[in-house]
Amino acid sequence: MSESLPPAYPAGNFAVAPQLDISQPALPRYSPSTATIWDVPPPDQEHSFCLTAKKTGERWLTLSVMSRAASAAEPPTFYQGASIAGSLKLELDKKEFIDEISLALYGRLSIFSHSTANFFYMSKTVYSAAEKNSDAGSSPTPFLKRGRLKGRYEWPYSLRLPKGVSILSSITAHGATERENYRMPPSFSDEQSSVHVQYSLVVRVNRGGFKTGSKLTVPLTYIPLARPSPPTILRQLAYQEDHPLVGPDGDPDGWKALGPISVDGVLFKTMSVEAECKLHVSKPLTYARGGIIHLLISICCGNRQFLDLITPQSVRVALIQRLTFGDAPQTTRFSERLTTHTTVKTYERAFASWWRNSSESQGESTKTFAGELLVPDNLVPACQILHYGHGYELAFCTLSAVGFTPAVAQKKALLSVPVGIVTAFAQGPRPRPYRPPEYEVP
């Protein structure tokens, strides 16, 4: 995918909040793609939303939106770089004073239900009585500013989503402005962490004077597009030809080695045990939602009884989501913050399943397991926006066995590595599972 700048928007009927500048040059980098064709649904699903008269129940304003949603029952769905397009229809049985009709697109971050901030805003005027009277040569008096509308009207519209935003973050002691660049985050609503990123399209009808205006709010779903780099040729051939995966010895570029790490403890309260664990993770370390992370772990120990007690259920490897709330340390014109004010929460989002690995040679003092972790297809890709961010890591959490007590109480993972979660698969054959059917996914 090309890393071009966000598209420029014409002046006139478009308005962008000054602190939410979408035309800044430097946006955060992400994994590029060499392809411009994405496996996304066609934009042929039409959605209709309306406002009705209180007395008669008849529609008088209808907003139509074309999207890539699977059905009209789902919220309008848009992918990175898409245009939000459709039409706005007005049906008035009698004359009404209407000063202005506008469309606005919002991106909003909500945390813990009491902290809400807009990170994106764009608006477009669909109808303006003042501009209409000005074009007709009338004086811009308050009376002439008001427009009397009756009958049927229809206005097409189109708002193009940028790839990212540049947001004013601080003003230095010398008066210079500093900005932070962000990619547009995906829509998501996580009740467990009380974090929500929401996009909405809002129609406002301003009647002017003391008359109450009308508003129609339509929630949208936004999905960024990114894919991993292709795996090694040997991995691709294994997927394509339905062959076993080549291990780290035969395909060293296809695996990330973690460790070795020593695990010490006591077996049955009498025997001291020291085991050495080494974990291999399939590369590249960026995975599509619904994809598979292949794993290999070797456990080396001189105590044969301990090795006999190690089963596939003994190894706990998890996909961890790490959430951060707060701001980095900085000194501004208004405040001095020298330490980082962050709150970190972690959630285990998926676990690996394991089985004995018969393809790897292993001596009497070594036991090897192959494993897979299925990335949930509803997992939210990593993002950072304003004072919130989340990312992922793969963690070897524990090694357990019947009768085994670790020497030190474990407070953190034995091994871990940051991983990326994206919305599209790599080019080439898709990852396939190798888990034997008798082993269940945890």
Task: Give a structural overview.
The protein is mostly beta strands. About 5% of the residues lie in helices and about 50% in strands. It has helices at about 130-135, 140-145, 235-240, 305-310, and strands at about 15, 20, 45-50, 60-65, 75-80, 85-100, 100-110, 115-130, 145-160, 165-170, 175-185, 190, 195-205, 215-225, 255-265, 270-280, 285-290, 290-300, 315-325, 330, 335, 340-350, 355, 365-375, 385, 390-400, 405, 415-420. It is elongated and about 90 Å long. The two termini are about 35 Å apart.
Give start-end ranges of low-pLDDT stretches: 1-35, 136-144, 328-339
* Rg for CA atoms: 28 Å
SS strand fraction: over 45%
Task: Give the biggest beta sheet.
Answer: 7 strands, mixed
**Helical/strand content category:** mainly beta
* Overall average residue pLDDT: 83
Identify the overall geometry: elongated
Number of strands: 28
Which key features would you list for this structure?
442 residues; mainly beta; seven-stranded mixed β-sheet; six-stranded antiparallel β-sheet; elongated
Indicate the topology:
Layout: E1 14-16, E2 20-21, E3 45-52, E4 59-67, E5 77-79, E6 83-98, E7 100-111, E8 115-128, H1 129-135, H2 142-145, E9 147-160, E10 164-171, E11 177-183, E12 188-190, E13 195-206, E14 214-223, H3 233-241, E15 255-267, E16 271-282, E17 286-288, E18 292-301, H4 304-309, E19 315-327, E20 330-331, E21 336-337, E22 341-351, E23 353-356, E24 366-374, E25 383-385, E26 388-399, E27 404-406, E28 415-422
Parallel strand pairs: 5-14, 17-28
Antiparallel strand pairs: 1-8, 2-10, 3-4, 4-6, 6-9, 7-8, 7-13, 10-11, 12-13, 13-14, 15-16, 15-27, 16-18, 18-24, 19-22, 19-26, 20-21, 23-24, 25-26, 26-28
